[in-house]
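Cross-posted from the bioinformatics board.
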Amino acid sequence: MINRKFIKIIVSAIMLGVLLSSCSSSAGAASSWPGFSISDGKGYFAYGSQIFALEDKNGSLLWRYPEEASAGRQFYAAPEVSGNLVIVGDYTNTLAALDKQSGKEKWQFSDADDRYIGSALMAGGNIYAPNTDHYLYALDENGDLLWRFKAAGPNWTKPVADEQYLYLVSMDHFVYALNFEYADSALAADKDGNRNLVSAPVWSLDLGAAVAANPVISEGVLYAGTIDGHLYAIDLAGKKIKWSFNGDGTVASIWGSPVVTESAVFFGDEDGNVYALDKMNGKALWDSPFAAGSPVIAGGVAIDGKVAFASNAGKIFTIDENKDPKTLVTLEATLYSPLGFDTDKILVAPASKDKYFLALNADGNEIWSYYPAK
Amino acid sequence: MWETLIIKPFISGLLFIYDLIGENFGLAIILFTIVIKLITHPITVKQIKSSNALQAMQTDKDWIEIQKKYKNDKDRLAQEQMKFYKEKGISPFASCLPTLIQFPIIIGLYQSIIQTMGNAPLQMLNLVSKISPWLTNVFSFIPGLKQPINLIPLNSEFLWMNLGRPERFYIPGISFGIPLLAVFVVITSFLQTKLMSNPGADDQSKQMTGMMNIYMPLLMGWFAYSFASGLALYFVASNVITIIQYAALGKLNFSNLALKKKAVVKK
């Protein structure tokens, strides 16, 4: 009798544990979507426990990092590829530099305290890595810390740069302009006495809401979408907002990067609407937005005078300044990640355990797909 | 249905309090737990009363008589029990119903706290889709209120903790962190179960209660050690508030805390 009751307690405890675990962020389930980048005919995909380097032309595997997957390291930030380095950040606190040809690790930087959700930027031989511990870390090509800047909130977006400054758009609602390099004398000391802290940005601008999607710079203007449904065009020389658009309050959260073409800016929102704006004044080009049928979380990509978007429900479509939408394909997959385009292929990374990465032609037909060996 | 009736209003309530008290998420969790406990207080009182009535019934002379008399005739026993319930005006389900009503509220409270602490893209996407400005609109006369979407991301720093991550307290000179909050969870869970449990009528019940008093606090402590400290803070707040609630109703058994000497059997 007592044994039966004891078993009941244990079963109840296990059930409570499962309940709590299933609702907890630490339960080990995927907490983001794949990130990838394209460089020199190769795609570098970050999804889950490994980074995969694939040939764009046929999807063959070049290397994977780490060679043996472990649950302890999760990768979602798109790898940054520059020179002979691939910079990858994981969901613990480690940033690693890999050899572009072999995928072998060259160094690790583990001074950060939290996740790398946003990609690093390589510029002028240095690496600028945003972390959710509120810091942006500047490293040299050997992974040694040059300086760090603390925002007021987590940093999810890849920094962008023009000739003059580095720009960090943070979840703390601000755009920060920073120098690429700082003299030791311009840096403050941290608690250990090391002079590596940037005390203040060159300038900053409050956007009023968090920015989760990578901003884009084009012709001296920075475009960033906020989760309260505003698209901002910021005049970098004037350090002020040039225009903003929220469709009189009808635009929902913006999770994908805007696409800037010669004369327009395209973006999608969480309600599944795609907007096209006049690049100069932020006026809507269409009488009404294009309804994709399900949320457009992924950023778009410019393809031959058109812009391709993906909706959550798997629809991949193109649209142009005259609207004229064309559905290329509807995949049986959830799409959150931005599409990629390389010469004649659209690269797609569904948020699915079965079908990791695939390449489509301009008509939406599958060229190849890559399933990681289990 | 669950999302619309429970999770979304709870998230709205949590964010509203967070905004009202100057964007302190730790305090918001504590205050929100107090608000929910206050709302469910009448149900708790009813549950305690019903539970006490059922317990008193176990020692009733007539009840014991019925158990003995019809122990070999289950149908008759059931009939007599029902008759007894009717005569004494006791509903055997009266203590279950309040628990059933409270259960979704407790789960909703827990889930809304977890979801509001989301600090990764999929979690944040999920949170943003559940944010509604209705509460802010209702109280728009309060100066300085922000739209809830503009409160994101929440300030997760509270005292020495980052509420989105497991808590460790670092003491200068000691290289490892001490899970202070997990220790608080174990202590408060132990006190709660110990002070609120009624001594069972027989040895078997006493043994069961004793095991619960040990295993449940340890289990809760393990959760507090492993998961986000915002959750552990909720556990501590909930335990302390429940103890205060029962104390106010005069339903704490302080005698359970007294060290009991084992009976010495004389030969």
